[in-house]
Amino acid sequence: MATLPHDITEAMLGFLRERHLGFLVTQRADGTPHCVPVGFAYDAETNVVRIISADHSQKVRNAERGGRAVVSQVDGGRWLSLEGTPTVRRDDASVSAAERAYAARYQEPRERADRVSIEISVDRILGRA
After folding, report:
1. What is the pTM of this model?
2. Rounded to an integer, what distance in angstroms lies between the CA atom of residue 126 and that of residue 129?
3. Largest Cα–Cα distance in the chain?
């Protein structure tokens, strides 16, 4: 079922707070999909997914080209895909917010001098939770 972010249910939010990895799908320069496992956090107040990454990664290069991105989480018959426009953030405040969100859901991230935050402004949610 397709849902707009403002229609997200408590069951969906609960699922997104559980400790699961997701898959991030972005587009390479040639248009083919690039799919990698990631830790992520969803902020329901701002409808933003935050993913921490090394600045030189393929997913960062893909996100910088714009277009669309999707992060999906699955557990048995439950699944959600959060779709939207990606943006790469390098400022300290954005990176710190992404690190805090990651730590709250998973664990403290290891130190990285080249860390950035990929933010997806979610405008569509698909799935069943």
Report:
1. 0.94
2. 10
3. 40
